[in-house]
Specification:
Length: about 375
């Protein structure tokens, strides 16, 4: 009796390679760009000690508040919405904290719930208008931007430095990493460290990565941003998801405002100006598509690091004008928007290699037609 095996040597199941998604490709581009810029900086600017661990970690220490704002924008942009009020909310939180501590006599511990409450209030109001009233998010959050910016001047039109001892101890605290250090020329050790703001930013980043990948809420964000009609047919509450995204963005903006005040302990009417642009550019450079449905929080982290690196490198090139870092960042932003347009035009089912091959084949197939046209022209106009 002959028994046939289910699989023989010549009948193995075909091995299929998983195509890299658009999200993965954009993330690879962002990470490669950051490490290329950082390695180039360590080679070109040896005297600036770019190779030191402390310099690397300071890229995050100095931009922890921007990372929080960018993570909030990442959540909102994935749903296909936007929030341009986060910079003004940051400035409002810093002014409220400074006024509470210097003029109202509050304890420093009260600044934490107040910061969270301000951010949540903006998120709830704006989220309700966008999700349930179906008003354009750009108009709603632009109104929030003007309202927060006006409230800053109403609370206090002048700069208010913070001198509270407890708050200043939080601001100046450092958590050293003992196994990451470099030796200075005088024999002392330059040990890398993280500020409390950077630690909070990293914890929020980890929680958001888990939430976006493992929870129903995270999957709903991608579904709504990818195709709201399909998400609705799958049972996703589109309005509630957009509302929750804006509330979370407002909450992260409130935390970002608190972290910014730790970084620059003072209230000033100019605080937070342009931070929404930094947050949006960091998210887009990090691989978040403006059309929604694509993006990863870890990509946003590298987008923030690229912006921080640009700000550090530009002065070393001899360029002292403060506007040049943003000009260079805008150039990177332009490139990534062009890349996104290529992905969107190709469709979600096609990868970059398919796009390029399709264009190459179209070019190749056009050559015979061009030669044929030239030949026909020669026949039409023969030599006399």
């Amino acid at each position: 009796m002959n028994i046939k095996l289910p699989f023989t040597k010549n009948a193995l199941p075909p091995v299929t390679r998983k195509r890299i998604s658009n999200t993965g490709i954009l993330l690879i581009i962002t990470v490669t760009l950051f490490f290329t810029l950082y390695i180039a900086s360590t080679i070109l600017f040896k005297s600036s000690n770019f190779a030191k661990y402390s310099v690397f970690f300071n890229l995050l220490n100095n931009k922890a508040h921007i990372l929080l704002l960018a993570l909030g924008l990442t959540v909102v942009l994935i749903t296909g919405s936007i929030d341009i009020s986060v910079g003004s909310v940051t400035g409002l939180v810093s002014m409220v904290i400074a006024t509470m501590l210097t003029q109202k006599g509050f304890d420093a511990i009260w600044t934490i719930p107040v910061s969270l409450a301000i951010g949540i209030a903006f998120g709830v109001v704006q989220g309700f208008l966008v999700a349930y009233m179906e008003i354009q998010p750009f108009i709603v959050t632009l109104s929030g931007l003007f309202f927060a910016r006006g409230m800053i001047s109403v609370i206090n039109p002048v700069s208010v430095p913070i001198t509270d001892k407890t708050f200043m101890s939080w601001s100046g605290a450092k958590v050293y990493i003992p196994f990451l250090f470099n030796e200075r020329k005088n024999g002392t050790l330059d040990i890398a460290y993280l500020t409390p703001a950077a630690i909070v930013a990293i914890l929020v980043l980890i929680l958001l990565i888990i939430a976006m990948k493992k929870t129903k809420f995270g999957r709903a964000l991608y579904a709504v941003g990818g195709n709201p009609q399909s998400a609705l047919l799958m049972g996703v509450n589109v309005r509630r998801t957009k509302f929750q995204a804006h509330v979370l963005c407002g909450l992260l903006a409130g935390i970002g405002g608190f972290l910014f005040t730790l970084f620059a302990p003072s209230g000033n009417p100019g605080n937070g100006v342009g931070y929404e642009i930094d947050a949006i550019s960091s998210s887009v450079i990090g691989g978040v598509m403006l059309s929604g449905g694509v993006g990863l929080p870890v990509g946003t982290l590298f987008g923030v690091l690229i912006n921080s690196l640009i700000e550090r490198v530009v002065p070393l090139l001899g360029i002292t004008e403060a506007s040049w870092p943003r000009i260079i960042t805008s150039a990177f932003l332009f490139v990534f928007i062009v890349l996104q347009s290529i992905f969107i035009g190709a469709g979600n089912k096609k990868g970059v290699s398919a796009i390029l091959m399709q264009k190459i084949k179209a070019r190749i197939s056009a050559f015979p037609k061009r030669f044929k046209r030239i030949f026909q022209r020669k026949k039409t106009y023969p030599d006399k």
